[in-house]
Amino acid sequence: MLNAIDKVILEEIADLHEVPLGAYNIRKNGEGISRNTTANIDIITKKDKPGIDVIIKPGTKGESVHIPVIVSQEGLKDIVYNTFEVGEGSDVVIVAGCGIHNSSGESEQHDGVHEFFVRKGAHMKYVEKHYGEGDGTGERILNPKTVIEVEENGLVELEMIQIKGVDKTVRDTDVILHENARLIVTERLFTNSDQSAESNINVKLVGEDSSAQVISRSVARDDSKQIFHMNLIGHSKCRGHIQCDSIIMDNAQVSSVPEIDALDSDAQLIHEAAIGKIASEQLTKLMTLGLTEIEAEDIILQDFLE
Amino acid sequence: MLNAIDKVILEEIADLHEVPLGAYNIRKNGEGISRNTTANIDIITKKDKPGIDVIIKPGTKGESVHIPVIVSQEGLKDIVYNTFEVGEGSDVVIVAGCGIHNSSGESEQHDGVHEFFVRKGAHMKYVEKHYGEGDGTGERILNPKTVIEVEENGLVELEMIQIKGVDKTVRDTDVILHENARLIVTERLFTNSDQSAESNINVKLVGEDSSAQVISRSVARDDSKQIFHMNLIGHSKCRGHIQCDSIIMDNAQVSSVPEIDALDSDAQLIHEAAIGKIASEQLTKLMTLGLTEIEAEDIILQDFLE
């Protein structure tokens, strides 16, 4: 069922060499091709639209769900709606991610709409990796929409990584945090050639003592374009911090348009953004150690996106 | 010509006890009431619309221009268009500012549109203070629009201060910086009661080696609202830094919506914004020295807005 290309993609987006342990659902070219459930994690195909419901029982700890998506069919425009019920007090890792292999002249696209209900006191780590490859001239397009509601005392960690090879992306992430709920977002974005990427993160700090930390790092090379809208809205006593750093090279363009709104005088919100090129001292230092300029650049960029 | 109220206003907005030294033009309730020119600085009434042209000869150094505006007439809506030609290599201080005294039930408004051409190598310091007073229920409204073009090697320092008593303000500031031109903006904004303030600063870094530094500090008390749009657009090799700090108290609301756009890979742009209340340690420290909470708050706020 999994051919050589699929295996490369699975390794890139989910660090998987074979089928994963625990619960999983592998989607290829618009269809589920392989699934496993566990005693605590059920996966049910949606009846009204493409996608799955993932139901994690309250108190489930130390389990994982893998839901990789492979797109390799010429001209495919795949849309999927996945819903996650992360039960009260559970502690789970969910690994999503999509890899597109395009060797055709037509575009291939995957739009993943993910909705998460993280119940009281639950801890969810959600990892999403996006990757494109293939020598076709057709575009590789990935538009994830991630909607998360975090109940009291919940903790959500998001790792959202676009490794390489994605020609166009619009990433929408909307999070609502209730009382004492916490959010930690790590975003990594790389574009080159004439790729474009837009990332929109909206966090509503609704509950008392909720907190959010968003750290975004990106590298834009060649003629690529990136735009970031990172918004924190403090509706009550809360703390929020956004840090958005971009390295810009060649003819690339980067825009950062954040918004912080304190609607309560006990809201503490901080935003920091910096756009600039690699510090020349860093380059010089590595080059005096014997590296070429390109090698030195590569090391600095890899380190920055780690 | 200047009554007791006028003198209080002049002192608040321009630190003037009597008529100023150097060139000046005093406008009261929509009319110029007093003017002085010097050998190097001419002031000419516009023919096509209300306002003046201020022409500063190339090489003029160490001179100042005062152009205070007094509004104290019930229901007045005053609009004025002033144009400044700041000659090549000159070094001048321009003190504007508007004070509104409203003891009526109707609103009083002053919209000052200021356009500056700062020629090659010129240094202009522009100070603008806004102030409202009077026990009337009518609103005191000030909408300044400031448009500045800075030629090669020019330096512009802006000090824009809204002291108190302004019920509504929309402040628009647009600056274009050419080669090696520098901009330093200091903004101070205070609102209380149900006042609202919007400040929009757009800086285009067009020329090689241009640089901009914008430091904005504000305090929002009671039910007041503030919104900031601070934008830096880097079109070439340039450096820009925005720092926007707000103290929020009571039921006030503050939004910060900056934008940094690097359209050139040699543009280095940084934005920092923080919204929060007074640090409780600071309050505690001053209160252990014998101050009441209100006295301690006042000292911290004054210090912050200095």
TrEMBL record, chains A, B:
Highest taxon, organism lineage: Bacteria
InterPro entries the UniProt entry points to: Fe-S_cluster_assembly_SufBD (IPR055346), SUF_FeS_clus_asmbl_SufBD_core (IPR000825), SUF_FeS_clus_asmbl_SufBD_sf (IPR037284)
Pfam families: SUFBD_core
Domain SUF system FeS cluster assembly SufBD core span(s) in chain numbering: 83-304
Similarity annotation: Belongs to the iron-sulfur cluster assembly SufBD family.
Descriptive protein name: SufD family Fe-S cluster assembly protein
Lineage, broadest ranks: Bacteria, Bacillati, Bacillota, Clostridia, Eubacteriales
